[in-house]
Amino acid sequence: MSGTERSGVAAHHEHRVSSAPERSGGDGGLVIDGHTHVYPDRVAKKALAGSVSDLKRFGDGTVAGLAEVMAAAGVDRSVCLGVANTPDRVDNANRFAGSLDPGLFIGFGSVHPGLSPEENVASLRAHGLRGAKIHPMFQNVRLDDPRLHATLDAMQGEFAVVIHVGAAGDDPGERCSPVMLAELARLFPRLDLIACHFGGYRHFEQAAEVVCGLPVYLDTSWPPSLAALQPERVRAVVERHGPDRVVFASDWPMADPAAEIEAIRALGLSADDTAAVLGGNLARLLSIEA
User: Fold this and answer.
1) What is the pLDDT, as a whole number, of residue 255?
2) What is the rounded end-to-end Cα distance, in angstroms, of the chain?
3) Which helix (H) or strand (E) holds 146?
4) Residue 189: partners with Cβ closer than 8 Å, 6 or more residues away
5) Angle, to 10 degrees, between the axis of helix 146-155 and the axis of helix 117-126?
6) CB under 8 Å to 170, separation ≥6 — which residues?
7) Sheet holding 246-247, edge to edge
8) Whole-number Å distance between alpha carbons of 50 and 28
9) CA nearest 289: which of 36, 29, 80?
């Protein structure tokens, strides 16, 4: 998401928010937001100021702010994604992600091709993280970088990887196209890949042709809202890809989780498929229990 996620990941202290009681989603089961961003309080404002400028903000980017939004929207857990722009910030990013209250948040850290595969994996393990986020624009890396491939290979079978695919701000996304994502799925069949923005932000139709049907998970984030896409087209993509491999994601604070949940419910999927998208699929993938 944000180019200044580098600022938000530099904290050494822990952030704990009292866990909310478990709630059952309106469609049954947990509601899990698979794509959010939080920062230490002292840098949240600066981090958001440096993020993608053409998107509205729906929150302040703080841990407490996300917890409040989750309670209002009926979200049980949120995956919080960290991105370290440079290799020297990776471990701080992972420390912060690992400090979040596991009753509410699922910390995903960062990896960087400037570190060795062993260093990247060791940092994720040290901070108890279940996966990592890769954002080619803000990390200045291409998805076809052999150094990145070496780390992804090392992560197979142990970690999930959330990858930004498509455009961001004024960047058309040439470093992270749907075609490049498809190649990763071919190269690393044992890697749990989650492709942001249906596999191609602002490249929905290309992603529908190239990524749809691949053995990857698609996240539903489409800031400022999934409602900007035609619901019948989205439903067709979900059904073709497989509702068991699509996960609800808001990209908070760049979108409102409550509105995104309603947009998913408005797609016209079956109750079982809606419940799977809203949380069941991520619960299964990440072994999260109610």
Assistant:
1) 96
2) 28
3) helix 146-155
4) 215
5) 40
6) none
7) 32-36, 77-81, 105-110, 131-134, 160-163, 192-195, 217-219, 246-247
8) 38
9) 29
Q: How large is the average pLDDT for residues 156-180?
A: 95
pLDDT per residue as tens digits for the range 178-222:
999 999 999 999 999 999 999 999 999 999 999 999 999 999 999
Residues in the chain: 290
What amino acid is encoded at 134 in this protein? Answer: I
Q: Which two tokens stand for residue 87?
A: 């290799």
What is the rounded CA–CA span in Å between residue 23 and residue 192? 27
Mean pLDDT of the chain: 90
- Residue 107 burial (CB count, 10 A): 26
Question: From CA 127, how far away is CA 99, in angstroms rounded?
Answer: 8
For the chain, how big is the Rg over CA atoms in Å?
17
Residues ≥6 apart with Cβ < 8 Å to 252: 33, 35, 36, 37, 58, 59, 66, 69, 78
Q: Phi then psi for 185, rounded to 5 degrees?
A: -60, -35
